[in-house]
Amino acid sequence: MKVLIIEDDEKVGSFLSRGLKAEGYLTLLLTDGLNAVETVKQFEPAVIVLDRMLPNLDGLVICQQLRSQKISARILILSALSEVDERVKGLRAGADDYLGKPFHFEELLARIEALAKRSVNAEHKRQLQVADLVLDLDTMRVQRAGQELNLTAKELGILELLMSNSGKVYSRERILTNVWGLNEDPLTNIVDVYLARLRKKIDDAHPVKLLHTRRGLGYAIMQE
Fold first, then answer.
1. 127-221 has which CATH code?
2. Could you tell me the keywords of this UniProt record (predicted)?
3. pLDDT, tens digit, for every residue of 179-210?
């Protein structure tokens, strides 16, 4: 299987190329994104490992160009910009997956293997669903009862966390760690504020409430 690596850091690019070749992949390394679209058309990779911050042309722009050309290769973005809002930008630009730097090679390999298993023409989308609330993980779009909801990046991060284990109660501290990257409470009610906004958007217009508060414990999404 062919893997195209677009990475301007020579050490990282060489490491990826050697590692993937050792696993049996046929690789090609680009250190600049200017000729990415033409190279993809000629090389026809199944998976593209794309650095987010490239000289001359941003990785998100490349991603958008590839999708506008109807190129169906799976795209895995690598980036030191690993916050939820940056991941959302990458997915909305057309990426199939997003991995923050630094990364473990085994995780990268597992993600490439998972992307490779997806049929190029597959209609199936990765989704999280609780009752009539649906989060599309490929586009990071949310619908409740068929109506699209406009959520911020942080709201999406919270929703993904809670929906990934429906019924599980997440403490404020754990939400802070996963969504804001904070290990300590900044002594504000930031989590409560965002949960109140999220509840208004997903529950206020519906008789069945899905976002629940467990006093003294945290928050959960479930259908009771």
1. 1.10.10.10
2. DNA-binding, Phosphoprotein, Transcription, Transcription regulation, Two-component regulatory system
3. 887 666 666 688 999 999 999 999 999 999 99
pTM: 0.55
Tally of residues, the chain: 224
Tens of pLDDT, residues 152-168: 988 998 998 899 888 88
Domain 2-117, second-level architecture: 3-Layer(aba) Sandwich (3.40)
Distant-in-sequence, close-in-space partners of 189: CB < 8 Å, separation ≥ 6: none
Task: Give 99's strand partners.
Answer: 78
